[in-house]
Amino acid sequence: MPPLYLALPFCFLALRDRRFVWVLACPLIFALGINFFPAFQYHYMAGVTCLFVLISVTGLRQLSRFSALAARIVVLLCVAQFALEYGLHVYSHDPWSLALRNPERRVFVDNQLARAPGKQLVFVRYWPEHIFQDEWVYNAADIDGSRVVWARDLGAVENEKLRRYYPERTAWLLEPDALPPRLTPYHPS
Protein backbone atom coordinates (compact mmCIF):
# COMPACT_ATOMS: atom_id res chain seq x y z
CA MET A 1 0.00 0.00 0.00
CA PRO A 2 1.36 3.43 -0.86
CA PRO A 3 1.23 4.75 2.75
CA LEU A 4 3.74 2.05 3.65
CA TYR A 5 6.25 3.72 1.32
CA LEU A 6 6.60 6.29 4.08
CA ALA A 7 7.88 3.55 6.39
CA LEU A 8 10.11 1.88 3.78
CA PRO A 9 13.18 4.11 4.26
CA PHE A 10 13.12 3.27 7.96
CA CYS A 11 13.34 -0.41 7.06
CA PHE A 12 16.91 0.15 5.87
CA LEU A 13 17.88 0.95 9.45
CA ALA A 14 17.34 -2.73 10.21
CA LEU A 15 20.18 -3.66 7.84
CA ARG A 16 22.53 -3.45 10.78
CA ASP A 17 21.36 -6.99 11.49
CA ARG A 18 22.94 -9.08 8.70
CA ARG A 19 20.07 -11.57 8.68
CA PHE A 20 17.82 -8.82 7.42
CA VAL A 21 19.89 -8.28 4.27
CA TRP A 22 18.29 -11.39 2.75
CA VAL A 23 14.82 -10.12 3.55
CA LEU A 24 15.48 -7.10 1.34
CA ALA A 25 17.50 -8.99 -1.30
CA CYS A 26 14.86 -11.66 -2.01
CA PRO A 27 12.12 -9.29 -3.32
CA LEU A 28 14.75 -7.56 -5.46
CA ILE A 29 15.84 -10.87 -6.98
CA PHE A 30 12.17 -11.78 -7.51
CA ALA A 31 11.50 -8.43 -9.23
CA LEU A 32 14.46 -9.00 -11.53
CA GLY A 33 13.15 -12.46 -12.45
CA ILE A 34 9.56 -11.46 -13.19
CA ASN A 35 10.68 -8.65 -15.46
CA PHE A 36 11.97 -11.28 -17.90
CA PHE A 37 8.75 -13.34 -17.84
CA PRO A 38 6.17 -12.03 -20.33
CA ALA A 39 3.01 -13.66 -18.89
CA PHE A 40 3.11 -12.47 -15.28
CA GLN A 41 0.08 -13.35 -13.16
CA TYR A 42 -0.73 -11.66 -9.84
CA HIS A 43 -0.78 -14.92 -7.90
CA TYR A 44 2.97 -15.27 -8.54
CA MET A 45 3.39 -12.64 -5.83
CA ALA A 46 2.19 -15.08 -3.17
CA GLY A 47 5.67 -16.46 -2.59
CA VAL A 48 7.11 -13.10 -1.58
CA THR A 49 4.07 -11.56 0.07
CA CYS A 50 5.31 -12.63 3.49
CA LEU A 51 8.54 -10.70 2.83
CA PHE A 52 6.59 -7.55 1.92
CA VAL A 53 4.65 -7.88 5.18
CA LEU A 54 7.91 -8.37 7.12
CA ILE A 55 9.50 -5.36 5.41
CA SER A 56 6.42 -3.23 6.15
CA VAL A 57 6.26 -4.27 9.80
CA THR A 58 10.00 -3.73 10.23
CA GLY A 59 9.76 -0.28 8.64
CA LEU A 60 6.85 0.63 10.92
CA ARG A 61 8.76 -0.68 13.93
CA GLN A 62 11.82 1.41 13.07
CA LEU A 63 9.60 4.45 12.38
CA SER A 64 7.88 4.06 15.76
CA ARG A 65 11.29 4.33 17.45
CA PHE A 66 11.50 7.87 16.04
CA SER A 67 7.81 8.77 16.31
CA ALA A 68 5.04 6.48 17.51
CA LEU A 69 2.49 9.01 16.27
CA ALA A 70 3.92 8.89 12.72
CA ALA A 71 3.74 5.07 12.70
CA ARG A 72 0.11 5.18 13.86
CA ILE A 73 -0.75 7.72 11.16
CA VAL A 74 0.77 5.45 8.48
CA VAL A 75 -1.30 2.50 9.75
CA LEU A 76 -4.47 4.65 9.77
CA LEU A 77 -3.72 5.77 6.19
CA CYS A 78 -3.43 2.10 5.17
CA VAL A 79 -6.79 1.29 6.76
CA ALA A 80 -8.39 4.29 5.04
CA GLN A 81 -6.92 3.34 1.67
CA PHE A 82 -8.12 -0.25 2.02
CA ALA A 83 -11.65 0.90 2.89
CA LEU A 84 -11.71 3.30 -0.06
CA GLU A 85 -10.39 0.76 -2.59
CA TYR A 86 -12.68 -1.98 -1.35
CA GLY A 87 -15.67 0.33 -1.65
CA LEU A 88 -14.66 1.36 -5.18
CA HIS A 89 -14.25 -2.25 -6.27
CA VAL A 90 -17.55 -3.40 -4.84
CA TYR A 91 -19.52 -0.67 -6.61
CA SER A 92 -17.58 -0.44 -9.88
CA HIS A 93 -18.24 -1.98 -13.29
CA ASP A 94 -14.56 -2.76 -13.77
CA PRO A 95 -14.04 -6.41 -14.86
CA TRP A 96 -11.34 -6.72 -12.19
CA SER A 97 -13.61 -5.57 -9.39
CA LEU A 98 -14.45 -7.91 -6.55
CA ALA A 99 -18.10 -7.87 -7.57
CA LEU A 100 -17.49 -9.14 -11.12
CA ARG A 101 -14.33 -11.24 -10.85
CA ASN A 102 -16.02 -13.87 -8.73
CA PRO A 103 -16.54 -17.50 -9.77
CA GLU A 104 -20.30 -17.03 -10.13
CA ARG A 105 -19.72 -16.02 -13.77
CA ARG A 106 -18.23 -19.43 -14.53
CA VAL A 107 -20.80 -21.24 -12.40
CA PHE A 108 -23.55 -19.47 -14.36
CA VAL A 109 -22.13 -20.75 -17.67
CA ASP A 110 -21.37 -24.23 -16.30
CA ASN A 111 -24.98 -24.57 -15.10
CA GLN A 112 -26.29 -23.66 -18.55
CA LEU A 113 -23.99 -26.24 -20.17
CA ALA A 114 -24.95 -28.88 -17.59
CA ARG A 115 -28.61 -28.56 -18.61
CA ALA A 116 -27.77 -29.19 -22.28
CA PRO A 117 -27.87 -32.86 -23.28
CA GLY A 118 -24.85 -34.63 -24.78
CA LYS A 119 -21.34 -33.35 -25.40
CA GLN A 120 -20.63 -29.66 -25.92
CA LEU A 121 -18.16 -27.54 -27.90
CA VAL A 122 -17.86 -23.95 -26.66
CA PHE A 123 -16.25 -21.22 -28.76
CA VAL A 124 -15.17 -18.36 -26.52
CA ARG A 125 -15.31 -14.92 -28.15
CA TYR A 126 -13.61 -12.18 -26.18
CA TRP A 127 -14.54 -8.55 -26.68
CA PRO A 128 -11.80 -6.12 -27.80
CA GLU A 129 -11.43 -4.61 -24.32
CA HIS A 130 -11.08 -8.05 -22.70
CA ILE A 131 -8.46 -8.34 -19.97
CA PHE A 132 -6.16 -11.13 -21.15
CA GLN A 133 -5.63 -12.58 -17.68
CA ASP A 134 -9.33 -13.46 -17.46
CA GLU A 135 -8.96 -16.69 -19.43
CA TRP A 136 -11.93 -18.99 -20.02
CA VAL A 137 -10.44 -21.65 -22.30
CA TYR A 138 -9.34 -24.50 -20.05
CA ASN A 139 -9.68 -28.15 -20.98
CA ALA A 140 -9.21 -31.44 -19.15
CA ALA A 141 -6.21 -33.60 -20.02
CA ASP A 142 -8.42 -35.94 -22.05
CA ILE A 143 -9.92 -33.29 -24.31
CA ASP A 144 -11.68 -35.71 -26.66
CA GLY A 145 -13.25 -37.57 -23.72
CA SER A 146 -14.45 -34.42 -21.96
CA ARG A 147 -18.13 -33.53 -21.88
CA VAL A 148 -17.27 -29.90 -22.68
CA VAL A 149 -14.46 -28.79 -24.98
CA TRP A 150 -13.46 -25.13 -24.80
CA ALA A 151 -11.87 -23.29 -27.75
CA ARG A 152 -11.19 -19.72 -28.72
CA ASP A 153 -13.33 -18.29 -31.46
CA LEU A 154 -10.94 -18.03 -34.41
CA GLY A 155 -13.48 -17.14 -37.06
CA ALA A 156 -15.88 -19.18 -39.16
CA VAL A 157 -13.25 -21.01 -41.25
CA GLU A 158 -11.12 -22.21 -38.32
CA ASN A 159 -14.13 -22.92 -36.13
CA GLU A 160 -15.62 -25.10 -38.88
CA LYS A 161 -12.51 -27.31 -38.80
CA LEU A 162 -13.12 -27.95 -35.11
CA ARG A 163 -16.82 -28.54 -35.66
CA ARG A 164 -15.97 -31.19 -38.28
CA TYR A 165 -13.55 -32.81 -35.82
CA TYR A 166 -16.33 -32.92 -33.18
CA PRO A 167 -19.49 -33.52 -35.26
CA GLU A 168 -21.37 -35.13 -32.34
CA ARG A 169 -21.01 -32.06 -30.10
CA THR A 170 -23.45 -29.18 -29.79
CA ALA A 171 -21.61 -25.96 -30.64
CA TRP A 172 -22.03 -22.86 -28.47
CA LEU A 173 -20.72 -19.31 -28.56
CA LEU A 174 -19.72 -17.81 -25.22
CA GLU A 175 -19.13 -14.10 -24.75
CA PRO A 176 -17.69 -13.93 -21.22
CA ASP A 177 -17.34 -10.14 -21.27
CA ALA A 178 -21.11 -9.64 -21.40
CA LEU A 179 -22.83 -9.12 -18.06
CA PRO A 180 -23.91 -11.79 -17.35
CA PRO A 181 -21.79 -13.95 -19.68
CA ARG A 182 -23.76 -14.75 -22.84
CA LEU A 183 -23.98 -18.39 -24.00
CA THR A 184 -25.87 -18.86 -27.28
CA PRO A 185 -26.03 -21.60 -29.92
CA TYR A 186 -23.16 -21.20 -32.36
CA HIS A 187 -23.91 -20.05 -35.89
CA PRO A 188 -20.94 -19.60 -38.27
CA SER A 189 -22.25 -16.28 -39.57
Question: How does this structure look, described?
Answer:
- The protein is α/β, with parallel strands linked by helices and 189 residues long.
- It has 2 domains: 2-90, no CATH class; 104-185, no CATH class.
- It has 6 helices and 4 strands; from the N terminus they run αααααββαββ.
- It has helices spanning 8-11, 19-34, 46-66, 68-90, 104-115, 156-165, and strands spanning 120-124, 148-152, 170-175, 182-185.
- The protein has a 4-stranded mixed sheet with strand order 2-1-3-4, covered by helices on one side.
- The longest helix has 23 residues, at 68-90.
- The radius of gyration is 24 Å and the shape is elongated.
- The termini are far apart.
- 13% of the residues are buried.
Q: What features would you highlight for this structure?
A:
189 residues, 2 domains, alpha/beta, 4 strands, 4-stranded mixed beta sheet, single chain
